[in-house]
Amino acid sequence: MINPSAPILVTGGAGYIGSHTVRLLASQGRKIVVLDNLVFGHQQAIVDEGVELVVGDVGDQDLVRELFAKHQFGAVIHFAAFAYVGESVTDPLKYYQNNTAEPIKLLQVMQEVGCKVFVFSSTCATYGVPDKLPITETNIQDPINPYGRSKLMVEWILKDCDRAWGLRSACLRYFNASGCSPDGIIGEDHDPETHLIPRVMMAVTGEIEYLEVFGTDYNTPDGTCIRDYIHVEDLADAHARALDHLAAGGESVRCNLGTGVGVSVKQIINAVEEVTGKTVPVKFGPRRPGDPDSLVADPALAKSVLGWEATRRDVRQMVGPAWLWVSGPNKGRYPQNTLST
Ligand code: UDP
Known about the structure:
This protein is an alpha/beta fold. It has a domain at 8-179 and 229-258 and 296-310: Rossmann fold, CATH 3.40.50. The chain has helices at 16-27, 61-71, 85-90, 92-113, 146-165, 196-205, 232-247, 265-276, 300-306, 316-327, and strands at residues 8-11, 32-36, 52-55, 75-78, 117-123, 168-174, 176-178, 211-214, 226-227, 229-231, 253-257, 263-264, 282-285.
């Protein structure tokens, strides 16, 4: 058991999924300290005044030790990572350094100070091309790119730390994070932006000339790839539940976070047209290397262990807030950071 009111260290809490999780946890009255180097994070994504933002690196052990000494964290939620699959192929060491080696340094400090609860942002990319659908946690994990491997290695490391020194962890394997906060205050802002829904939005607003659809000859009903789009606030909720599960003494868990509903690229485009009332300029192009036909979660384990399930299964519920965010005052972009390391 850990003290449920102990502060929580959230690395990468100024990023997309991290910031939505921080906001939820803060609204639940939890004391949060965010550690983010703001390479991809946005200081403006931390909207709660009670949340402290520390600008720095996860692998800066002196800084992390100092934070532990000051706050006596009961748990760590680790979001900080690079997540560009294509870049991981061309620059694998960058990914192994940032996504695998840096968390080891964080875990070393946790072991030193005796903090034994860790919630980890994992990914469906750890499965690679699925050996069966929907994907359950018993599917073979055989990632097809360094990004997926950099995450899977951390899953293995966490398992070993559990055996060796009792670190209890939740590895949350996200499917396609999407949507934004329904009040349009925080949202998805990546630079460069590669993800489908924001790019469709960019095509609608004219920020890009057209959306290129990567491949129309997949083995799916309409020929375009199928993914499982999960609302970012549902993801945030899963982190809160994972913390509760571990705080109550629950065992380590590794589970999928998806809706269980598969949606094709064409269906996303249709949903965006429906929600925005605008036509999406589209060009049909070749396949993007490394895209499996279909990735759809079986979310049953998260339900049975964490009591979690997606509350939004219709992509229009994700596209609606995303549209609010890109058509709002910030036009889907946070102001530039003024803080830096
Ligand atoms: N996609 C697309 N055009 C784009 C971006 C993505 O057709 O400009 C497709 C991509 O090939 C995949 C799906 O949309 O089938 C989701 O891609 P995304 O990069 O959002 O997430 P991924 O599933 O790769 O993590």
